[in-house]
Structures are given as C-alpha cells and as structure tokens.
Amino acid sequence: QTQRPFRRARYLLKLEIATPIEKMKKVVSEINDYVLNHEMIYHPDPSITRFEGFGDNSLEILVSYHIATFDAAVMRRVKEEINYQIMVIIQQNGVKFAYPTLKISQELEP
User: Fold this and answer.
1) Distance CA 27, CA 33 (A)
2) Each residue of 71-82: pLDDT tens digit?
3) For helices 21-37 and 72-92, what crossing angle results, to 10°?
4) Planar angle of CA 51, 10, 3, nearest 5 degrees
5) By the 8 A CB rule, do 74 and 6 touch?
6) What is the pTM of this model?
C-alpha cells in the first residue's frame, strides 16, 4: 500500500445569513487565493473554496485542501496558519461567523 503525499483538510465555514452577496464573493475569493498560494498546499490535487449552500441560520463556505505532508503535527500547524488567515479575511471584510439562534414568538390572545 502506497501512502498519499498529502493529508486532507475539509470543513464548512458558517457565516451570518444576512451577509451581502458582494462580501460573500470577496471572502470566498480571498480564502481561495490564500489557500492556493500557501507553500504547503499539495497542488496536483486542487483546493476548493466555494459557497456551498444555505444552513439553517447560515451561509456555508466549503474549504477543502491537501497539505503536502505525512506529518500530523505539520498538518495541524498549517491548518492553524490557514485558520488564522481565514479569521483575518472574515474580519477585514466586515463579515461575522454565524452562531445558532432560536427565535421565539409569542401570540397574544385577544
């Protein structure tokens, strides 16, 4: 059995449902550019950063990439670097992460 020359990272970022489309496009593009240009990304397999869809209370961005290492510690370090930069991109664009919400409505009886 041969080992693949990379480890995969894949997760969903959940942004507030009210995020404007222009900001969403910019965030997706900036994250994609950063990941593609990271020195530890395994390039024969493409990285993917896409607007994946709609969650219950969020807009979801799929972030998927391969890190060119077998070493789990190196993988965690690279994921951490990328995650910090994703936070910077989110903050610089004035966008916020979604959090679970619960709406409670009360009907008043006449």
Assistant:
1) 10
2) 999 999 999 999
3) 150
4) 140
5) no
6) 0.85
